[in-house]
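Each record in this resource describes a single protein on a pair of labelled lines. With that in mind, the following record should read easily:

===
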Amino acid sequence: MPSAFKPPATTRRYDACVLGSGIGAAAAGALLARRGFRVLLVETAEGAGERAEDGWLLPGAPSLLPSPRLVPAAASVLGDLGLASDAARALEPLAPALQLLLPRQRLELAREPERLAAELRREWPAEAPALAAALAALSEASEVAGQFLGSAPPLPPSGFFDRRALRRALQAAARTAGRDDRSIAEGAPLAPLGDHPLAAALAAAARFLCGLDGPLAPLAVARLGGLALRGLHRPAPGLPTLGEALRRRITEARGEVVGAPGAPAQIEALVVEGGRLAGLRVAGAADLHLARAFVLGAPAAWLARHLPPPLADRRPARALAGAGAGRRLASLHLVVDLAAIPPGLGPAAIALPA
């Protein structure tokens, strides 16, 4: 019998190759493509799974998002790519708002201050005024953090001039709020709540709203906690996702996308030339993909595992392997009878045991 025809292998060249999954990787590829670079986005499975942190099994990517209008970087990226209206359609306000199920209380983080105050009075009548003041301070700290991040300081700073620019950005944000700039970078935004269970609940909520590994910095806690109080959004059912819109921007600019969220690409081999990453091969395809630059949107330890010998045994590989926190994950799925679900429970709730 005649053998099946196999097309000859070709070498495909790009200015930049983005490795990873999620909105961050797709946004990086779309921004590069918009600026005229020939881009390849390789959607991998790495970085899309669960992650363990402080006893929680967290999603690899947030499923609840703040309004892009409240996040300067997101608003800037979406505006640059002409996707602001797409994002508005792809996201819908969470209704009811995020709910916190505590051992003896149940609280809804209502967006309206009056409703939130009523929730506090219902669950903690004597402490309600102090709790409302603490949450108002957290919301203010979140706005200050947003102004600081909106000034696009160099993060992390890499030299004297970067450190000076970062310091000036902190001082400018502090002047706006009438605060000490050290309190913004090094403060404890949940300290006014003390050991109240609401503090632990907000700290847990912050973990579900970002994809960062390791302990969250005070600035991140303040920003995420305040955004949770100002209302969250979720993907609107039945509509294209924001990730799909970003990938479409790449292909419209004559870039290429390999893999998809439901069918990720598998990296067969990484090609190293002259001590630097130069290309890759994707399983199931004969083509060699070469790029002048690589953007990593996946855990650094994943890249280290794919490096060929002898580079895999050298110091750069060991540094990459140690860049991410080690994890042992266990997934548990519970099937709950509808009658056992508390009445009024919305689509997003965090339950804290005693």
User: Anything to note?
Assistant: The chain has twelve helices and 14 strands. The first strand starts at residue 11 and ends at 20. Residues 321-332 have pLDDT under 50 and may be disordered. The CA atoms of residues 297 and 312 lie 20 Å apart.
